[in-house]
Design a protein that fits this description.
The chain is mainly α. A hairpin with an 8-residue loop joins strand 1 and strand 2. Strands 1-2 form a two-stranded antiparallel ribbon. 61% of the residues lie in helices and 10% in strands. It has one domain. The termini are far apart. The protein has two helices and two strands. The longest helix is centred in the first third of the chain and has 49 residues. Bound molecules: zinc ion (2 copies). One zinc ion binds next to strand 1 and helix 2.
């Protein structure tokens, strides 16, 4: 009295459901993390290209007015030209504050 067709349908359906739920999980996290690094890299590249071609000149540090080891600090990596110029000391201070 076993109905073979019914059993096969049930197995196919549950396989499909588990495959779909497996697909959903990893996508969200991977995209947001790699997007962050991709945006950050391209923002840095744009700034260093402008520096290299002398379209912008490194000013002094916004916080202590030092002119040594000036680095571009991005306030927001999705806006590559929204930057603050900081010496390496002040720059690392700012990032340490953000972490804590
Ligand atoms: Zn400084
Ligand atoms: Zn920074």
């Amino acid at each position: 009295m076993i109905n073979k067709n019914n059993i096969n349908n049930h197995v196919l359906l549950s396989n499909r459901e588990s495959r779909l739920s497996n697909l959903k999980k990893p996508i969200k996290r991977n995209v947001s993390k790699s997007d962050y690094y991709r945006i950050r890299n391209s923002a840095n590249k744009k700034i260093y290209y402008l520096l290299k071609t002398k379209q912008i000149i490194k000013p002094s540090c916004d916080l202590c007015e030092s002119i040594e080891n000036i680095e571009a600090h991005h306030n927001n990596y999705s806006e590559p030209f929204n930057i603050t110029w900081l010496c390496s000391k002040c720059h690392s201070n700012i990032h340490n504050k953000n972490v804590q």
